[in-house]
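Hi team, as promised in this morning's meeting, here are the two structures we talked about. I've kept the exact order from the run log so nobody has to guess. The first one is mostly here for context; it's the second one we should focus on when we meet again. Sequence first, then the predicted structure tokens.
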Amino acid sequence: MTTTATQVTGGGGAEPAAVPGRGPSGPRRPGRGIRGSAWTPLAFLAPYLVLFTMFIVIPAFYGIWMSLHAWDFVMPAKPWVGLGNYSQLFDPASLQFEPFWNGMLATGTFTLWSVPLLIVAPLGLALLLHRNFPGRTFFRAVFFAPYVLGVAVIGLMWQYLLNGNFGLVNHLLGTDIQWTTTQPWAWIALVGVTVWWTLGFNAIIYLAGLGDIPQEQYEAASLDGASAWQKFWYVTLPGLRPVLIFIIITTTLASANMFGQSYLITDGGPTESTRTAIMVITATGFSQNRPGEAAAMSYILALFLAVVSVVNFWLMRDKDLAREEKLRRRASRNSEGTVR
């Protein structure tokens, strides 16, 4: 005879009966014992990996191969030049030296002007939009709305608004400034348009980071008598460290690859002062039909950006956590040596 709680064994003892929903040692957790194939994650990743390989990995290696040749789209022969295309970029006597480094200077100028504004201004905006007030969702949408517009729309719109003869900006300000044909107004216009365009995106990223900071930390700081500035410095900024690293790196990379705003608003002027490195690379590769030299320029630019990204990541790292990890590893090595 069987029972619902126990069953008699041949040795006269009793053992727990099989109860639905229970394992041999207690309640069964949902999904316990269910094992999928090791290929399942790869199956989900396969579409992305295929596209990433086709449009990123293969073109990257193909570009390196092009940079090592005197490449021409129409000529069948593409002689091997080795590092010749790279060495010319560092030879003041070469034709590529001055345009490329002038473009790099323009890129650096734009990056130095725009990145600090695109880090600080969105943070201040996010702190305001993070407060509870009527219509905050509406204002979030308003500030983010320009980011959904394409660079062609932004460039053409501001080209007319900033026109020195009939532009609306001069009319509203009561000025007579040639925003797109004189310096430093051309840089002010490009930086201002870029900040207005991308401000909302960084603010939304900051808002996501602010939402992840536990409210208990602010309450504890208030109990300790911390001021608003002390809460920002000792609670908000440390809590936003991962977000800050992301925003600094992505904003720096985006600013260093600026092309559309300068091409459409100032056309690289005045006197090619706003002609960025990407504009020089594009003109060299397509207008002048020297894609091998353009590829070499692009990899020099990529190397600079990689160095800047590593430096930013190193400067923004959690120094206390890194110090603790270093001490832990040292203690682990010492304990291993003692055991031996």
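And here is the second protein, the one for discussion:
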Amino acid sequence: MNRLLQHAFTPNQATSIGLLAVAFWSSVVGLIRALSLHMGAVGGAAVMYSLSTLLLLAIFGLPNLRQFSRSYLFWASIFFVGCELCLSLSIGFADNARQAVEVGMVNYLWPTFTIIGAVWFNKQPAKWWIGIGFALSFIGIATVLGGDGGFSLPEIIGNVRTNPLSYIMALLDALFWAAYCTLTARTKAQGNAVGFFFLLVSCILWAKYFAGGYGSLHFDTGAILYAVAAAACMGLGYAVWNIGISCGNMTVLAGASYFIPIFSALISSFLLNAPLSVQFWQGAIMVCIGSGVCWLATQNFSFRRIE
């Protein structure tokens, strides 16, 4: 795999490979939820991140942490680890399949938050109508959380109250990832420490699992298949995205990434057998449009979901 990463790809080849990350990451929400039903939210996440860590280390090798400043490693670790913990546990602790998809959609506020972070903290030039994109994203999420009632404040409040922990963690996930990306761009960090961050996530999840008395893990056929699939989608997503952003067309890749919420909802609905309402799809489309408007407002801004 290291030889593959070092191969001289043409821009079109690299872009095509990078686009695979969209498919991989779009599958993560449904696979995490399915895995949690077999192994539990904490145990399933611990197994998945452990396998992803091994895969990432096999692909990228051991990270050279001396490339990074101590300050960067400290804050990047907090943001990255916080993001991944909130992502996996918010989905795993969802009350049902429909709620897992909704929680996953809240997570997809990260493109909007990332662009806002680039403008606010990194002084990225932007048009005034970036505010329209920001508003569209939040209206879209509100429509999703309103269930069949659509954009209805009482429905939104009632829905969130059924499981506030999952929804709060999903929002924190988006904020943590935006903070990590903003920090990495601001410090112009070079190298790849994703394997190290995944190792930290795995250790914390195993510590929580053994300290919390979650019972024994059941490695039946379904659990193993979902664990391998989820870990592969997570790890390979980073690998192919790295190829795409290194040698491919970043404009195409960034544009495609804003459709991940739609693809994720489609795949999750199929995997989890969770029918989604017209109102949900309307909200999901608004989230995508809002992220796209924010991106266009920054002109030449391009987002990379990897160090």
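Starting points for discussion:
Residues 221-247 form the longest helix (27 residues).
The chain has a mean pLDDT of 84.
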